[in-house]
Amino acid sequence: MESLPTTVPSKSERRGRFSKSSQSTSKPSVIMAFFSCVAWLYVAGRLWQDAENRVVISNILKKSYDQKPKVLTVEEKLMVFGCKDLERRIVEIEMELTLAKSQGYLKNQKNGFSNGKKLLAVIGVYSGFGSHLRRNTFRGSWMPQGDALRKLEERGIVIRFVIGRSPNRGDSLDRKIDEENKARKDFLILENHEEAQEELPKKVKFFFSAAVQNWDAEFYIKVDDNIDLDLEGLISLLESRRGQDAAYIGCMKSGEVVAEEGNQWYEPEWWKFGNEKSYFRHAGGSLLILSKNLAHYININSGSLKTYAFDDTSIGSWMIGVQATYIDDNRLCCSSIRQDKVCSVA
User: Fold this and answer.
1) What is the CA radius of gyration of the chain?
2) Please, are residues 241 and 219 in contact by the beta-carbon 8 Å criterion?
3) Coiled-coil region(s) at which residues (predicted)?
4) Which residue, 52, 125, 186, 250, has fewest beta-carbon neighbours within 10 Å?
C-alpha cells in the first residue's frame, strides 16, 4: 500500500500568507481610527463653540443686569436730570411773577380807556339766566344804559352784569345772553365759570380775576342782583376812600355757623369754625368793596383759594391771611333803616 505524498510549505510561502491576512485585518482598523478622529474633532469643535456662546451669553446678561432700571428717590431723579437748579429757578421766577402781578404788571391787562386813565371803580352786579326782567328793571332805575353808561365810564365808573356760562355750552341760555350783550353791551361774561347755584361761591373768584384783567381801577365792587344802588352816594363814598390801599369795605358782621343740614345758610364745613361755631368778621355779601391790591391778590391766587358755602364768608377767609384794612361802613348795610345808606334791598 502506497502512502500519499505530503507537502510541507516553505518559509517564504508561510510569510506570504501571513502578510496577506494582516493586510486584510488592518484596513478596517484604519478606517475606524479615521472616523474616531473625525468624531473627536467634531465633538471638540462643538464644545469649544458652546464655551464661546456661554461667554457671550454671560456678557449679555451682565450688561442687562447693569442696565436694569433702579428705583430712585425724587432727590436722586432730580440729581440725575440736573433739575435741582432748574427747580430752584422756577420757584424764584414764580415769586418774581407774583410780585410783578401784585404791583399791577399783568399780562394782557386792559385799561378802561384808551388814554390809560385809571378808573375809580368797577361794579359787578350778579345776574343769572332767569333774571332778564330784573336786569331791565335796574336799567330803568339806577343803572344807566346806552350813551349814559358810556358817559359814566368817562367819569371812571364801569358797571357790568356778571354772569357765567351754561352747563351745556352754546345752548339757548348762552345764545340769549350773547344776544342781549350784543344789544346792551353791559355784561361781563365769565367764560370759565359755570352758572349754577352750587357754583355760586366760586363765582366771586372769577369775577374779581376777570375785572382786574380787563380794567385798571381803584376799587372793585361786588353787588347782589336784588340790590338797588344810590349810585351818586356810592361814588361819593369811594371818592373819600381814594388812595387807601388794602381796603376791605362793607357792612361787617359775624354770626353763628349753621351745622344742621337742610337749614337755611347750612355750612357743610362747619367743624372748621371751632367749638363755638361762629363765623369770623366779614363783609356782608350784598355789597362789598375791595381795593385794587386785594382784588389783584385774589386774581393771582385764585387757583388755591378755598371757598366755603357762601361767597361773603369765602372772601372773609381770604382777607384773614393778608394785611387787609377792615372798614365797617354802615352806609353799606343794605337792609338797615339809615337814611344815608347807599344801597337797599330791591
Assistant:
1) 47
2) yes
3) none
4) 52
Name the burial class of residue 168, with classes exposed (0-12), middle (13-18) and buried (19+) by CB atoms within 10 angstroms of its CB.
exposed
pLDDT of 12 > 90? The answer is: no
Q: Which three cell numbers stand for residue 117?
A: 386813565
For the stretch 263-289, pLDDT in tens is: 877 888 887 777 777 888 999 999 999
pLDDT tier for residue 208 given thresholds of 50, 70 and 90: very high
Strand order in the sheet with 119-126: 187-194, 157-165, 119-126, 217-223, 282-291, 247-253, 325-328
> When comparing pLDDT for 282 and 73, which is higher?
282
pTM, two decimals, is 0.68
Nearest to 158, CA basis, from 132, 193, 126, 122: 122
* CA dihedral over 38, 40, 41, 43, signed as positive or negative: positive
| Whether the Cβ atoms of residue 308 and residue 317 lie closer than 8 Å to each other | yes
Taking 90 as the threshold, does the pLDDT of residue 249 lie above it?
A: yes
pLDDT of residue 259: 82
pLDDT for res 192: 92
Residue 223 CB coordination number (10 Å) = 24
**Within 10 A of 188 (CB to CB), how many other CB atoms are there?**
21
C-alpha cell at 74: 425724587
Q: Where are the alpha helices (DSSP H) in the chain?
A: 11-66, 74-80, 84-102, 132-139, 147-154, 172-184, 200-214, 231-240, 292-301, 311-320
